[in-house]
Amino acid sequence: MKASRNGKTGLDLIHDPVLNKNTAFTREEREKYGLLGLLPAVVESLDQQVQRVLMQLTHKHSDMDRFVYLTGLLDTNETLFYKVIMSDPTRFLPIVYDPTIGEACLKFGHIYRRSRGMYLSIAHRGSVSKVLADWPDKDVRFICVTNGGRILGLGDIGANGMGIPIGKLQLYTGAAGVPPAHLLPLFLDAGTNNEQLLEDPLYLGIRQKRPPTEELYPFVDEFVAAVQERYPDCCIHFEDWTGSDAVHLLARYRDKVCCYNDDIQGTAGITLAGLINALKIKGGSLKDETIFFAGAGSAGIGLADLLVSEMVSEGLAEEEARSRIWMYDVNGLLQSERDDLFDFQRKYAHKHAPTRDLTTAIKSVKPTTLIGVSTVGGLFTRSVVEAMAEINDRPVVFALSNPTDHAECTAEQAYQWTKGRAIFAAGVQFPPVDYAGETYRAGQANNLYIFPAVAMAIYATRAKRVTDDMFIEAAKAVADQVPDKLLSQGTLFPPQSDILETSVKTAARVAKTVFDAGLAQVPQPADLEDFVRKHLYDASYPELD
Ligand SMILES: O=C([O-])CC(=O)C(=O)O
Ligand SMILES: [Mg+2]
To answer: Domain Malic enzyme N-terminal, which positions (predicted)?
Structure first.
């Protein structure tokens, strides 16, 4: 009997999720690797196996059950898992990702079956590098890392937040074809302040409160240094940290190592794409907009900073650009007299009387665009949305918080309350809305259009650093790929059914930005799209020798 390329034969080969083909092992392979008798008689194609999975999924009663089933499939047959989700992204992205992932994270410790990725705990301080070396793969190119501090709009859910790095990296592959062999989800466990979880007997993380920043940041420093040492070509993707940690950690590392924060830069990118297309619909240019953020955390600040740089490139002075951006948080409008603001929020606090009422603030500031990054479901009440419609002929309203019950308002509310005049987008997918004889199709302003494509560009070019320009270019590329017909129905983003194609084109444009900035570590090819295609993961069975 011959051994496969990783030395495995027989049951060990069947139990290896990367090499397993299950009923698709050929007769020759069964003979060669000692599989005869371990499999049913039939030899099936990957497509036939997909049919069986689809059939089994129809018998599940909820997307949560489908999520658990698909996780099990990934644990046993990676190729089949990606073949299934890439066969119908519109159907499967909402199951492996938002909104189902939100519920999956809340229940993570309860539905947990098998470990995936790595868990580094603050108890490992001083030996993080040694513990990281337990990971068997030699060529890790991306680590998506969270500490569970602010998962989606769900707040601090500690180790249950591990669902997010796992899901985000599945989107690298499913939405942009980054090969899964190079991806490592990682949970940096420094405890949780979530009392309910600390008391849950099935909670999976360390049972202690979060440490102060002075203890957390040296731990993150040690982790970042350990990654540099073991995987010098690895890009660190920070995800779902609390707002202030997100902003401070990105500032700490962005000029020193290859890293980015998706909540800051990816969310900013997709929202910029939405704004570019909203302006195509209503006319005008970004520099003439007044933008009001409900929520002043990492997503709001990241987007505000990106908008300021775009407005400056359209000719505004930086101070003037900042004056067009207003923010509002739990304590009301950010204004110059407030003494409870972080350094990075202060630049968006303008002279204004204090107000703690959102409608009053909107009526006074008169924004053209309202962006919800508050995590507060229903924050955009009828009076808020009607105020936007009074001020603007075509009010731009983006309700970006997720999962679904955290959205600031629904698509139906936005269209009804503005009598169909809103240019609306949400962080989750809402169904089409029929209003006064028209059908409106709100697009999903989700960073899944941005970060997987940016990651593909980083992967293909071996980029040394990640810059805001890469996210701005990704935003423009995504905006350019929305067909006119969709724009006329109010959809600001490309269809998810073509997500891989959209990502390839976006990645090619981002790759150009990387080469132009001199940040690539490979020679520049003549045809960038072809170059990206050569790096794509192919969901078909690997050779075993
Ligand atoms: O994951 C998503 O859908 C968007 C996101 O990054 C977040 O909400 O933190
Ligand atoms: Mg996030």
So the answer is: 74-254
